Amino acid sequence: MTHCQTPLRLFNTLSRSVEEFRPMASPKVRLYACGPTVYGRAHIGNFRTFLFVDLLRRVLVLFGFEPEHVMNYTDVDDKTIAAAKAASLPLREFTNQYIALFEEDLKTLRILPPDRRPRATDHIELMIALIEDLIRKGHAYVGEDGSVYFRIASFPDYGKLAHLDRRGLQPGARIAQDEYVKESVGDFALWKAWKAEDGGVGWASPWGKGRPGWHIECSAMSMHYLGQEFDIHCGGADLIFPHHENEIAQSCCATGKAFVRTWLHCSHVLVDGEKMSKSLGNVYSVADVLAKGYTGRHLRFLLLTASHYRQTLNFTWEGLAAAKAAVDRIDDWLARWRRLPPTRFAASAPEGEAFLASFCASLADDLNISDAVGRFFDFLRATNRAMDLGTLLPDLPSIWEIVDSVLGLGTVGPIEALRPPSAHPNAEAVILAGETPPLRVQELLARRAAARSRRDWKESDSLRKAIEEQGWTVRDTPEGQELRRR
Ligand SMILES: [Zn+2]
Q1: Is 34 a known ligand-binding residue?
Q2: Separation of 36 CA from ligand 1 center, angstroms?
Q3: What domains can you pick out in the chain, each with its CATH number?
Q4: For 238-271, how does the pLDDT look when each residue is reduced to its tens digit (9 = 90+)?
Q5: How many CA within 13 A on the CB side of residue 125?
Q6: Hey, CA dihedral for 300, 316, 289, 282, is it positive or negative?
Q7: Residues of the chain with pLDDT under 70
Q8: This prediction's pTM
Q9: How many alpha carbons lie under 13 Å from residue 256 in its C-beta half-sphere?
Q10: Which of 39, 69, 298, 371 makes an SS bond possible with 294, Cβ 3.0 to 4.6 Å?
């Protein structure tokens, strides 16, 4: 697949500016995204963030990078412990159910599964080692309650990501009753001493039985899988403070390194202009949306394209209906050109190249997907007109492959049904035997048919080899090319 050649520019929360993205060891990109806390079914607001990460990952690939994507599961914290207790289930058994539901929703939304999905409770040893290191270096201390706290006074850069005013976080500013155990009100827990309400949940540590704090989970797992310094860390904007600020403090103090080069944050979702809340009954899950007759593709299209990731997205049912209509238009367009003989497509038509250049330019501009999709619909309209007029079309199969590598809508319906051999009795017919060939093979076939029609046998032979490399064989028959799985 062709790659976008434009430099990719991303808004880095740390610098508050759009920067050209340059990974530490290009083309590799090490990417960490904070995963869900698995105590209940995730809602569409959560999935907007995971779709943003999916967009980022797909765009990185389109721009020639090779992302390695790690996302954690927070399977121990106050909420998971309390909810498991309420359900009378052991913590692991309880969180397993929600991990399974979450992964099912990822699949419905066609989100690429992260390369690694570490669970916090499988990495307690790493967290203990990191905390010991922080104590040794003077950045953490054991509080009066047996918990271990991070000493924010020991890290002058604290607050840089969130652009905090540190004055309110100075030592001695003891306010709340429950803060007396700490040296300073801003100090946060790295290790929480076991309490009766934790029930059977707890691990042995040098400071007694307890469990890790939420922030240390992400520092330990991200650095374990991606190294002490890596390229991108992302999550919802609500994680900037304190979660990501605390991750930076812990990681930088332990290693003396910068931890993360680029921080990306996705804004939140409103429903009908209001904050999602249980009392308003507007906290929708993927299952709620499917129950109304929509598919994962419709919801994906809406959450992915309705606004720029740094802007609030207002979810409405009318908006979802419009997203469905947009997806239907794309499906109609796909079905229409798939019925055409391969001779209708010209490999390097200028209108196809101009469209792809504009599509890349929009995405390069801090992932401006709404703009990229707008350009795609202009292109769709133009090619529909060209189909009406019977004129030569740009290479739609390969162009769609590139567009869909970002949209992730996938192909619809069996190709055999869309392109029945009997409809093309001429020499350019494609006879498909057995399973549907991938788009890449269809594109090669179309190009080979075009080469044969202009009697370019050398090109035809090299395309036959390219098709064979994809695991298919092509044979020329009086009815046209016949394709079989090798
Ligand atoms: Zn995290």
Answers
A1: yes
A2: 9
A3: 9-266 (3.40.50.620), 286-407 (1.10.730.10), 429-485 (no CATH)
A4: 999 999 999 999 999 999 999 999 999 999 999 9
A5: 2
A6: positive
A7: 1-2, 166-180, 411-436, 477-479, 484-486
A8: 0.83
A9: 2
A10: 298
